[in-house]
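Blinded run. Sample ID left blank on purpose so nobody reads anything into the name before looking at the predicted structure. Input follows.
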Amino acid sequence: MNFYLSVIDDLLRHPDDQPSIGIILCKGKNQAIAEYALRDLNKPIGVSAYELQNALPEQIKSSLPTIEELENVLETVSVKATDEQ
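Blinded prediction complete.
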């Protein structure tokens, strides 16, 4: 993620823009992997669980994809990435 954000900031970010942020969506969490992956980075990093679904009004909830739809997309992306390697 750090590599991609550095490239984006170097090549695409406008001088008036704030530094880019990256968001990684995961099916589960592994504290050891997160700790080692982020250990020597000098940029600010936040790790969090995020659940907004229950706080949204019904009219907005209905326009967003369901958890199942997101899981299907993530599975498709994961399979494509594996096939390309």
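Unblinding after everyone has recorded impressions. Residues 52-85 form one domain.
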